[in-house]
Amino acid sequence: MDLARRVGCNQVSPWFGHDGFDYILQADYVRAWDLLVEGLTECADHDHGVKVAVEFKVKEPRTHAFVGSTAKALLLAQEVNRPNVGSTWTSGMPCSDTNPWRNRSPCSHGSATGSSTCTSTTTTGRGTTT
What is the pTM of this model? Predict the structure, then answer.
């Protein structure tokens, strides 16, 4: 986040790396979720001027991710409960095995985010910023 600030970037999108699991009951789901909330809260509190945009991923490199849908990304952002934390929804991924229209998320104004082009939209509890 410090580097983002120095180069004039006002948004970061963390990659959760090897979060997730390959087999049922392989992970402590509650502990993993708590660590995600704790880590994002620490990032958000580090620099309130930089937005933290959580993007879901269905899998990769694990077969199942903890933040595997738009709904989970929004729930995570809601649980972190910081004004600079939201979710990123990226469309235009033809090789994705997800249906982007199934994963559309409503913002606080009740409208859907995202589009049919390659865009990235950050949604927070205060509205939508592109």
Answer: 0.69
| Of the candidates 58, 111, 113, the residue with the CA atom closest to the CA atom of residue 90 | 113
Structural domain span for residue 88: 2-129
Task: Look at residue 94 in the predicted model and tell me its pLDDT.
Answer: 46
Cα diameter, the chain = 42
User: What are 61's two structure tokens?
Assistant: 């490199």
Closest CA to 105 of 94, 92, 91, 85: 91
At residue 88, what are phi and psi to the nearest 5 degrees? -110, 135
The count of structural domains within the chain is: 1
C-alpha dist (Å) from residue 120 to 5, 25, 48, 130: 20, 33, 20, 7
- Return the CATH number at 120: 3.20.20.150
CA distance 24 to 22: 7
**Residue-level pLDDT at 76:** 95
